[in-house]
Amino acid sequence: MAGFFCYDGGPGSRNQNNAMADPTDRISQLKIDRSAPPSTERSWLVPGIVGAVVAIAAAWWFFGGSSSGSVLVETDVARKPPSVAAASSVLDASGYVVARRQATVSSEVTGKVLEVFVEEGMFVEKDQVVARLDDTTQQAQLSLARAQADSSRAALAEIEAQLRNARLERDRLRDLATRDLASKSSLDTSEAVYDELAARLETGKENIEVAESNVALALDALENMTIRAPFAGMVVSKNAQPGEMISPISAGGGFTRTGICTIIDNESLEIEVDVNESYIQRVKAGQPVQAVLDAYPDWRIPAEVIAIIPTADRQRATVRVRIGFLERDERILRDMGVNVAFLGTEIEDSPAAIQGVVIAGTALNRDDAGDFVWLVRNGAVQRRGVALGGPADRPQVLVTQGLAVGDTIVRSTSAPLTNGQSVKTE
User: Residue 416: what are its φ and ψ, rounded to 5°?
Assistant: First the structure.
């Protein structure tokens, strides 16, 4: 019959037996105590690593992406010169179209507006009626002056009749006096009466001239109530309406107008530009100019310098230049913005006469070897020496040698370039 053998090895044996008998005690020691506070010794490590990785990725993406060593650049294309101005311009400037001949039409006297016959944009001829004022008072003054003139004429006719009678009386007494049939005193009296009437006749004639002058003044005052255009031109503003008061001077505060309308002579339109005094030596009277209106950027208008105003603006350091249009067109309006190119030598306006290409001024570089540009070919840049056909300090530069129409060049770069440098375009 089999039996069981038991051994009690002391306390150590009992602990070992307990451990072997209860393995869950060992497993429980491997659990994470989440109630314990986190350790701060390495809490910054993980976010720092993540931030560094993000920064490196952003820099890699910004400075070339997957193309290692590429430089981000902005490119431009060499273009054919659009006109003679691009090839021979010595100076560019901007200004406005102004009217050399313009007038705000008003009246010579203060009065109330009855009618206005013009509107903005209407063309008027010289002496055309543009407005009428209330002429009731002037009509009455004219009637009075004419009545006074008629009265003076009637008085003169009466004096003339009396003078004829006095002349006959005097002649008769002279004949009687020669025959001693009339007294000397009677003759003297007739002579005095005749002389008095003759003097009154002269006074009457003067009174008639005065009355006629009064009539002329009344007619002039009446004519002033009709406002006419001083010259042929275009109405650009209408300043008064029927029922308003108008005066040649500012009177009555803001309720009194000082003009009916403003008229400009389109034939007198010209350009005024302010040229920096540092470049005024490039401009002279009679110099050819090409003008481009802001409203019509593809329309190039031939013009020429009329005069250089012989004074400078000390605050802006500029000199005003007047430029006249050589061609007139109804599209040219006062106060339009305009860009002008002052041309140098005369060049025939034909495609064969304009040699080279036009590039942005910022694409041009210069060192001890001369002028050059960075030509973009197959994702890399090549240094290309160029020859210029005009000033290098302009927004658009004419290149006569070294480039062809359609060549891609670097206009701006984010880092210095070297020959053969790999680039990435925007």
Answer: -60, 145
Cα separation of 143 and 137, whole Å?
A: 10
- Kindly tell me if the per-residue pLDDT of 247 is higher than 90: no
In order of their start, the domains of the chain are 71-81+356-425 (2.40.420.20), 89-100+266-344 (2.40.30.170), 103-131+229-264 (2.40.50.100), 136-223 (1.20.120)
Q: What angle do CA 362, 364, 369 make, to 5 degrees?
A: 150
Confidence label for 187 from pLDDT (cuts 50, 70 and 90): confident
Secondary structure of residue 16 in the 3-state scheme = helix
Q: At what angle do helices 184-223 and 136-178 cross, to 10 degrees?
A: 160
Whole-angstrom Cα distance, residue 163 to residue 399? 101
Total residues belonging to the chain: 426
Mean pLDDT to the nearest integer, 327-331: 87
Strands 318-325 and 269-276 turn out to be: antiparallel
Lowest mean pLDDT among 78-82, 114-118, 418-422: 78-82
What is the distance between the alpha carbons of residues 234 and 123, in angstroms, rounded to a whole number?
A: 4
CA angle 336/228/254 to nearest 5° reads: 70
Tell me which of 56-70, 235-249, 287-301 is least confident. Answer: 56-70
Query: What letter does residue 267 receive in the DSSP assignment?
Result: G
The residues facing 270 across adjacent strands are 98, 324
> Tell me: the pLDDT tens digits for 160-169?
999 999 899 8
Q: How far, CA to CA in Å, does 352 sit from each of 81, 210, 355? A: 11, 78, 7
Mean pLDDT of all residues belonging to the chain: 81
Distance CA 289, CA 159 (A): 76
The stretch 2-24 carries a mean pLDDT of 45
Over 273-315, what HEC string results? EEEECCCHHHCCCCCEEEEEECCCCCCEEEEEEEEEEEEEECC
Strands 396-401 and 357-360: antiparallel
Contact status, residue 303 vs residue 271, Cβ threshold 8 Å: yes
